[in-house]
Amino acid sequence: MSNQSIAGNEFQEFHSFMGMLQNLDVGLVVLDRAYNIQLWNNFMESHSGINPYEVRNKNLFEVFAEINQDWFKHKAECVFQLNTRAFTTWEQRPFLFKFKNYRPITGSAEFMYQNITIIPLDSATGIVEKIGIIVYDVTDVAVNKLELKAINAEFKKLSRTDRLTGLYNRGYWEECLIHEFKRDKRTKSTSSLVMLDIDHFKVVNDRHGHPAGDVVIKFVADAITMNMRETDIAGRYGGEEYAIILIDTPAHAANIFVERLREYIQGSVIKYQGIEINLTISIGIAELTPEMSSYKEWIDCSDHALYYAKEHGRNQVKVYQKGD
């Protein structure tokens, strides 16, 4: 075979190879040692709107200023110097190139999620003079995973939350109490447990019906949420009974909080279908002490204070004291 024929075949093979690279369903970018763009395939052109001749021999970071130079160069230098591949996933960094997402199925994503592989391109001398960036569009996978994660998070929240009040349900709140009891015992912190109950709640149900009772229960829960701190943990303990863990709060400070809550509820008027409902609450407080051997004993002490408040006239606060 003549040299001319061999050269013709090699040119044809090279042309076919370049055509394959251009039409891959992944992005392909080749950079030289100065991070200038040497190759820009059809995928990159289609999603960026930039033609290959516009970017050839231009610096990557000048064309795409949003790329974090320090982060990318740290990745790329390992490829140049060690002659090994580097990877990054959409979970580590959502994208390298900020391309708009135009897929109708994953329309909830504003930008294309990308997995990136950086590969060394050897020269004849064995020194890596160029690197290739392969860009995979993984928007479908990312969106599905994010949606599943959001659904699971919502299910988890629902499993912990009382549907009517939005407070923690008794089961999850009690788990929090156990955790706080152990923490306080370990760190010798001082926290207080508050139990409160709506006074004469049965009268509300009997006079105005259970829907009105639900409105009342929700109102008190909202009042608790509005008045407590972010660090405090509130739950619906029973029908019209609530429990609040006041983190790192001694009884005298807890008393200030619950008196404010009691006065707020006493001064409020709940309107339901043309009727006005007035409420009061009774409250028991128990400060965690070294003598308490279990979280259940802590609950019992707070509950004891609550019933003391109810038996001695209601609409009041009682701090637990041994011997009462």
**CATH T-level fold name of the largest domain:** Alpha-Beta Plaits
In the CATH hierarchy, what is the superfamily of the largest domain?
Reverse transcriptase/Diguanylate cyclase domain
Helix content: 40-55%
The second-level CATH architecture of the largest domain is 2-Layer Sandwich
The number of domains: 2
Mean pLDDT: 87
Q: How many alpha or pi helices? A: 11
Integer-rounded radius of gyration: 33 Å
Q: Which class best fits the helix and strand makeup?
A: alpha+beta
Q: How are the strands of the largest sheet arranged?
A: 2-1-5-4-3
Morphology: elongated
GO molecular function: diguanylate cyclase activity
Catalytic activity: 2 GTP = 3',3'-c-di-GMP + 2 diphosphate
Domain GGDEF: 189-322
InterPro entries: Diguanylate_Cyclase, GGDEF_dom, Nucleotide_cyclase, PAS-like_dom_sf, PAS_fold, Rev_trsase/Diguanyl_cyclase
Structure, explained:
- The N terminus is likely disordered.
- The chain has 2 domains: 144 residues, Beta-Lactamase (2-Layer Sandwich); 159 residues, Alpha-Beta Plaits.
- It is built from 11 helices and 12 strands.
- By secondary structure, it is α+β, with helices and mostly antiparallel strands.
- Strands 2-1-5-4-3 form a 5-stranded antiparallel beta sheet. A 5-stranded mixed beta sheet has the order 7-8-6-11-12, sandwiched between helices.
- β9 and β10 form a beta hairpin.
Q: What labels describe this entry?
A:
12 strands, Alpha-Beta Plaits, nucleotidyltransferase, 324 residues, 5-stranded antiparallel β-sheet, disordered N terminus, transferase, Rev_trsase/Diguanyl_cyclase, PAS_fold
